[in-house]
């Protein structure tokens, strides 16, 4: 289960670009906490502490306690050149609220897949899956067992054992998470479509 993260914040009394720039010059990142029918709270957090949490790799699917308020990060804006975080949106959540989170997919038992053993290639269609889960039970990942899958097989969400209490946010279709393709077939089909015949315009 994703661990609970903690971040301390200070209130900010002024909004606007100028105020935000001044905050960033001090090594802080403007943020807002909203949701649960309460007024949005404008705060700022330490950039260094935020970067540390972003570096965990599961910031966006973890509960983050911001000054004792249980939140779920919903959006982080980054500078297009420096990649520094510019702004964070936190959604207030109650302890056992149902929340939508994107959870990374992890593949295991590759050695038990006949298709991969014969030289097939695992073509990952979705690197994460949107789940509806209890805020207190957010899983670290969704495990896809590759046992028995052969070349030409598609692995759909229905074939995946989701963590207890979790369900897919997409319920109207049985979407594909990955396929196992033959490398030679892949190369020839790409070659045919990419190479125009002589005399044809590119």
Summarize the structure.
The chain is an alpha+beta fold. It is built from four helices and 14 strands.
What is the fold's blueprint, element by element?
Blueprint: E1 5-7, E2 9-11, H1 17-25, E3 28-35, E4 38-46, H2 47-54, E5 64-66, E6 69-78, E7 85-92, E8 98-108, H3 114-117, E9 121-124, E10 128-134, E11 142-145, E12 154-156, E13 167-168, E14 176-181, H4 183-194
Parallel strand pairs: 1-5, 3-7, 8-11
Antiparallel strand pairs: 2-4, 3-4, 5-6, 6-7, 8-10, 9-14, 10-13, 12-14
Can you describe what's shown?
The protein is α+β, with helices and mostly antiparallel strands and 202 residues long. It folds into 2 domains: 89 residues, Ribosomal Protein L25, Chain P, CATH 2.40.240; 95 residues, Ribosomal protein L25, C-terminal domain (RNA Polymerase Alpha Subunit, Chain A, domain 2, Beta Complex). It is 16% helix and 40% strand. The chain contains 4 helices and 14 strands. Strands 1-5-6-7-3-4-2 form a 7-stranded mixed beta sheet. Strands 11-8-10-13 form a 4-stranded mixed beta sheet, with no helix packed on it. Strand 3 and strand 4 form a beta hairpin. The chain is elongated. The C terminus is likely disordered.
């Amino acid at each position: 289960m994703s661990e609970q993260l903690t971040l301390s914040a200070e209130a900010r009394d002024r909004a606007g670009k100028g105020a935000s720039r001044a905050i960033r010059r001090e090594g802080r990142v403007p943020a807002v906490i909203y949701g649960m029918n309460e007024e949005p709270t404008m705060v700022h957090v330490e950039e260094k502490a935020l970067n540390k949490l972003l570096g965990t790799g599961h910031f966006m699917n973890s509960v983050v306690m911001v000054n004792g308020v249980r939140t779920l990060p919903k959006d982080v804006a980054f500078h297009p050149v420096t990649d520094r975080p510019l702004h964070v949106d936190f959604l207030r959540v109650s302890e056992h609220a149902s929340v939508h989170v994107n959870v990374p997919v992890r593949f295991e038992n590759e050695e038990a897949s006949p298709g991969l053993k014969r030289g097939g290639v695992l073509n990952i269609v979705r690197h994460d899956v949107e789940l509806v889960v209890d805020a207190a039970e957010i899983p670290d990942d969704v495990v896809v067992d590759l046992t028995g899958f052969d070349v030409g097989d598609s692995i759909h969400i229905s074939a995946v054992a989701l963590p207890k209490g979790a369900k897919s946010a997409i319920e109207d279709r049985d979407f594909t998470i990955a396929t196992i393709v033959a490398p030679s077939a892949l190369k020839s089909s790409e070659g045919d479509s990419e190479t125009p015949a002589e005399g044809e315009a590119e």
